[in-house]
Amino acid sequence: MKILLIGSGGREHALAWQLKKNPRVQLISAPGSSALAALGEIEQISPDNISGLVTLAKRKRPDLTIIGPEAPLVLGLADHLRAEGLAVFGPSSRAAQIEGSKVFAKDFMVRHNLPTANYAVFYDKEEAQQYLEGASYPLVLKADGLAQGKGVIICGKLEAALKAITELASLEAGRRILIEEYLAGEEISYFVLTDGRNIVPLPSAQDHKTIYDNDCGPNTGGMGAYCPAPLVTPTLERIILDTIIRPTVLGLATEGTPYSGLLYAGLMITLSGPKVLEFNARFGDPETQALMPLLKSDLAEICLAVAQGRLNEIEVEWENKTAATVVMSAEGYPGPYRQGDLITGLEEANSQPGVVVFEAGVERKMEGASFNSYTKGGRVLAVTAVNDDLPGAVDLAYEAVGKISWPGAHYRRDIGGKALRKSLLYDSGSD
Ligand SMILES: Nc1ncnc2c1ncn2[C@@H]1O[C@H](COP(=O)(O)OP(=O)(O)O)[C@@H](O)[C@H]1O
Ligand SMILES: [Mg+2]
């Protein structure tokens, strides 16, 4: 099966690593990375060069195209490829608006009665400022469009909010701004596969968004994850499916924009139940790096079944284990970061049983008879470990992380910490 994979990050490395477990899969990645080049062909076409990618697909005629990042989805890559008669894993541009426009997503949530934070939309900075003067805090300010994680600011008081509104209004995505009620609780990432009618839930995951331990410092693309999330009990999962996921998939279909691909609900588990923070139209990064090593079924067959609208025919099986992923980043990230540093210990970490290293910002260079790896990105790599339980997975992941180094390497030391502390409390409480 010839598969075209769009993207270049750690998420795509994890997907490719899982796809290649099927020996019949022949992989082409665009634009790919050093790690993806080791698993197949790569074509240097950027994910937002839609006409370039369509030309490539027409030339290669893949049996399936899997679209990793959000930008090409929102720009309509899936629609163009489907118009060429090609099978695609990923939603249409109109369905991807659920991620591409936060105003669209919130209005959709209200139309379909989904639990979410109260909000107001502003087209004008002055009006938003007036609203902020009379509001109570904390509040959350969000730019409408795709902003690569830079479009959301949580504000504890008026002064911060007034500063934030100016910041957001200067973004391309900030022509419309949402002001949202602040939700307290614990955040989870809930993924389902859907072909527009059938729904297959995946094990839940938790991301760690800030750069420093104890959820301090600025937000990043994600510094670690674990899967499944112990917070998501069977009862909570039933509530999520009944009050959020099913109405969303049905609502998109009845509005004439059926959703096919991976639907990612970012949820806040509040005292009054799960509420939607946002939807994403693709796999999460780094949650996918924790998820993929737990998948027992053939990812290529699953994605093809989604693309062909026959998800009901597929059995999706998971290891009954836990995965923990620790992201290692370059000095300076999420601001301007150092790059070009030699990475040591990668092979050694990777060869540990139960450990796999997914590369995001790594460049392999041939030097003599072998290659060396250098940093080339903010989030450099993600170390995933699989074990029987969360403490085991976390310990193993950190053991492997300890083997990898480069000047200025940074990682959080508390991945899984919150869930571990909770389970300790629970254990001692039940004595
Ligand atoms: N209403 C809210 N209440 C509390 N925290 C929020 C709220 N909305 C967003 N957040 C926080 O901000 C982060 C980013 O917001 P999100 O809507 O997911 O936008 P994006 O991922 O596009 O930056 C969330 O992961 C969450 O931690
Ligand atoms: Mg988010």
Features:
431 residues; alpha+beta; five-stranded parallel sheet; five-stranded antiparallel sheet; 15 helices; globular; binds magnesium ion
Any overview of this molecule?
This protein has 431 residues and is an alpha+beta fold. Helix 8 (125-133) packs antiparallel against helix 9 (158-169). The chain has helices at 10-19, 34-37, 50-60, 70-74, 77-83, 97-100, 102-111, 125-133, 158-169, 234-254, 287-291, 299-307, 346-350, 390-401, 417-429; strands at 2-7, 26-31, 41-42, 64-67, 88-89, 119-122, 139-143, 152-155, 177-181, 186-194, 199-201, 206-207, 210-212, 216-219, 224-227, 261-270, 273-280, 322-329, 342-343, 355-359, 362-367, 370-375, 379-387. Among the domains are: 2-97, Rossmann fold; 118-181, 2-Layer Sandwich (Dna Ligase, domain 1). It has 15 helices and 23 strands. The model has no long low-confidence stretch (mean pLDDT 96). The strands form six sheets. The chain has a five-stranded parallel β-sheet with strand order 3-2-1-4-5, with helices on both faces. Strands 12-15-18-23-20 form a five-stranded antiparallel β-sheet. Strands 6-9-7-8 form a four-stranded antiparallel β-sheet, with helices on both faces. 32% of the residues lie in helices and 27% in strands. Magnesium ion (MG) binds at residues 266, 278.
Q: Rg to the nearest angstrom?
A: 21 Å
Q: Give the biggest sheet.
A: 5 strands, parallel
Bound molecules: adenosine-5'-diphosphate, magnesium ion
Shape estimate? globular
Alpha-beta content class? alpha+beta
Distance between the termini: 53 Å
For this structure, the CATH topology of the domain at 2-97 is Rossmann fold
The count of β-strands is 23
Strand content: 25-35%
Q: Which sequence of strands runs across the widest sheet?
A: 3-2-1-4-5
Continuous helix count: 15
Give the oligomer, counting copies of the same chain as homo and different chains as hetero.
single chain
Uncertain segments are none
Helix fraction, binned, reads 25-40%
Based on the structure given, which CATH architecture of the domain at 2-97 is correct? 3-Layer(aba) Sandwich
